[in-house]
Amino acid sequence: MGLTDNGKIGTICNRITSRNLLIVAFVFLGLLSFSLLITVIVQARKNHETNHETNNNELCLTRGCISAATHQLRSIDNTVLSNLCTDFYTYACGNWIKTHPIQSFDVERTILGDIIDRRNFEIERLLDAPISRTNERSWEYKLKTYYTECLDDYARVPNSGTYMIGLIKDNATIDGWFMFDNSVENASQVALLKNQTLYQQLSHIHGDFGALAIFGIRTRFDENDTSIKRLEFFPAGLTMEVNDYVGTDSVSMSRLAALQLYIVEVVTLLAREAGINDTNLSDRAFIVANDVFTVEKFLAEIFAVQSIMMSLIPLFARMIHNYLRWRLISTYIDDLSYEYVHAHRLYLNAYYGHALHTSNDVYCTREVIRRFPLAIQHLYTMNVTRYSNAITTVQTIFDSLKNGFKEYINENAKWMVDEETKNIAREKIDKLTAAIGYATIASDDASLDNYYEKFFVNNDLHLENAYHYHNFHRWSLSNSLQNPNILDHWDYFETRTSRLFDYIALFNRLFVIASGMHEPLVNSEWPWPVNMGSIGVLLAQKLFASIDGPDGRTHLPNGTRYDWWQSPTIIGYNNSRNCITDYYVRDLKTLTYNINGAEIQIPLAGEPFSPTTLRHIGALRFAYNTLMKTNDIKSFKMPGTNFTSQQTFFLAYAQTQCYQREELLQLIRTQLGVYDERTALNAALIHMPEFAQAFQCQSKENQCFD
């Protein structure tokens, strides 16, 4: 749902128009790809005829090689070929940057982000398709009905606010609100007319309706026994980030002002929809906004020291009362009618400093993916079957990397000095496993029907469906405690920020979601150097984290928490870390950003980013060595680029790092020690003699990480 140019609410026609534009865009890209394909073939034939007598390396003209070359040529910028040795990123991604602008609703664009966006677009198409299993008990009926009701703005407009008002007024649960109760004539505008105990309020607002207030609840595997799960409480219940409450800078102050106006607008809308229009309404709305901020600021100061063991006694009962009801409303704000959704979007625009333009179909797609990952994975995989070969390819890559990783520890990891540390590293690699695909339960209709048995939907009120989801989520937590392995540990993976692949130290396992395994990460027809350079290196980084990451180096092969690095290895690693830090501080020195026409230089500290660079170097090195020992076509050259297998490997990896990002956002990230992909890639490659040899560049004297 959105506003048209004349200010009216968009209809289904807007969505059809948008999709037509996307179809036109895909047709255009198809024509462009076809023209590139012809160019690759012609250029390849010319190179083959010219070099056949003088070059032993034969051009690879298989369908996979031509497809991979077409993909690579789309992103390459040959105008900067002369700077390839010092800025390989710009050579590899220059044309991608020119042809992939940041979307109006976003602040960055990345290769992995584009993969997820394309997958989500495909999922949206599948959600819009007719229901094939129409039994109301089926997972498909429940999933698509939930999505359809979320999408149907007109069904939400007349009654969702009324339903929320009914929840708040229900004497058996919330039992009223200061905004409503104190509207009667001569009522106090300071004190509560009726109140519940803190326990009563939390049991209903937090327990019954799923609103995160003060704390959240989740399940985690017990680190001492992964066959059981435990409940875990974590700090939660803030509208803004912690630093926004305690900061005094202009950004924090503007965000505070936006929050207060947002709360006032929403609670006033709800009160008026409840038929309340007394002369003190505006005053009470501002009191609620101030109460909410006071409580959230108090919580933020507690959360800043990472503790939720505190007393709420210093806060007035009215403040707690208003805060908890605000948490209920804000939990369901995007499930209410348009006026509330619009107010929330305006607040987000003010909070982030730019318009996000989130449409209702994007929101609903994102919500069903987040809330029903098992059903979504099954919907996707049963309708999109072209990735089965890719899964086999990824498994082959993992098996090869696992062997290559152990060889790296034995032959190349000079920083890992002592044998005791090396022995544990070898044991971890030996016991390392991979889960490629998704939870077994997500591949069977009957199993999913049973899993979603406790989830109820109706086809006339989305807010009620959202409420039913929270009841289902509460049941799923209980079910998770009783059946800890029902999701094959994928539920643990879902808590990580990486949605395509990640390493979980507790299980010493690499998780790879099959639905993300396609171009440009992997193609079963592509030559080995391309697949190993793209998905291979990305997975190698996760595997390397099994021995050097904060979790990897503090978990033994069986998942027991124990810091297993010995002093000689710690010293060796820190020497490499200091070397990389010196490179950032002394050689690179600064990064420059253009903010509103002004050039701003940010000095580089090298920390805490240097371990990331070391991981990139280590992963590239053992993936490269794996390639050289398993590549059956070492003598080939790629059509179009005329690159060798070694050169193609580095190009393939570089093109997984292409990105666009708002300059201000990256400036802030750099100040926090998170450097951009261009800086990270070039820093890793300049410290690799393998790269220098492949492209005949001058090798850096101090490689830092052997």
From TrEMBL:
Residues 508-700 form the Peptidase M13 C-terminal domain. InterPro entries: MetalloPept_cat_dom_sf (IPR024079), Peptidase_M13 (IPR000718), Peptidase_M13_C (IPR018497), Peptidase_M13_dom_2 (IPR042089), Peptidase_M13_N (IPR008753). Its cofactor is Zn(2+). GO terms for molecular function: metal ion binding; metalloendopeptidase activity. Residues 85-303, 318-438 form the Peptidase M13 N-terminal domain. It comes from the Eukaryota. The chain crosses the membrane at residues 21-42. GO terms for cellular component: plasma membrane. Keywords: Hydrolase, Membrane, Metal-binding, Metalloprotease, Protease, Transmembrane, Transmembrane helix, Zinc. GO terms for biological process: protein processing. This is Endothelin-converting enzyme 1. It comes from Rotaria sordida.
